[in-house]
Each structure stands twice: as structure tokens, then as C-alpha cells.
Design brief:
- The chain is α+β, with helices and mostly antiparallel strands.
- The protein has two domains: 51 residues, Winged helix-like DNA-binding domain superfamily/Winged helix DNA-binding domain (Arc Repressor Mutant, subunit A); 36 residues.
- It has four helices and three strands, in the order αβααββα.
- Strands 1-3-2 form a three-stranded antiparallel sheet.
- The longest helix is centred in the last third of the chain and has 35 residues.
């Protein structure tokens, strides 16, 4: 998704960047387009794809909740390890 966030890209470029077969990439892009996470437009014979930032924003906000939780848990783990190491 990061690759599509930077700029609009044709399927061929995405295939080359991911080193996957074109049918597989097209299938994934179709699913992402169907759920609204990417946008597609036709330019001549090419389909160009780009991330739909408006659709991803709620997903990012939801996932960031877990990021805060894990950061807190990792900080607690770090403190415990440092405490045990200081006793050695």
C-alpha cells in the first residue's frame, strides 16, 4: 500500500515492484478497489491505481489504538528486563 500512497501507478509497475505474477496483483487490486481502499482510473489501455486515503484513515485510526497498547506493553517488558539485569 505504501507503494501506491506515493503516486498513482500502473499494474505493470506494481507487478515489477512486488515481483509477483500479474494475475495475482490484479486480483488483489480488484479486491482492494471493491472495498474502497484503492482507486483506479483508465488512461488509454492502462489502469492506474492509487490509495484512497479517505478510506484508509479510519483503519489507521483503529490500528493506532493497538499500537499504543503494544508500546505500553513493550515499555513494561523493557523495564522488567532492565530490573532483572541490574540484579545479576
Amino acid at each position: 500500500m505504501n507503494y501506491l500512497a506515493l503516486q498513482e501507478r500502473p499494474v505493470g509497475d506494481i507487478v515489477a515492484a512486488l515481483d509477483l505474477e500479474q494475475p495475482s496483483v490484479s486480483k488483489h487490486l480488484r479486491v482492494l478497489r471493491d472495498v474502497g481502499l484503492v482507486r483506479a482510473r483508465r488512461e488509454g489501455r492502462q489502469m492506474l491505481y492509487r490509495v484512497n486515503a479517505d478510506a484508509i484513515r479510519p483503519l489507521h485510526k483503529w490500528a493506532s489504538t493497538f499500537e499504543r497498547l503494544w508500546q505500553h506493553q513493550l515499555q513494561k517488558l523493557k523495564e522488567r528486563v532492565e530490573e532483572k539485569m541490574s540484579k545479576v
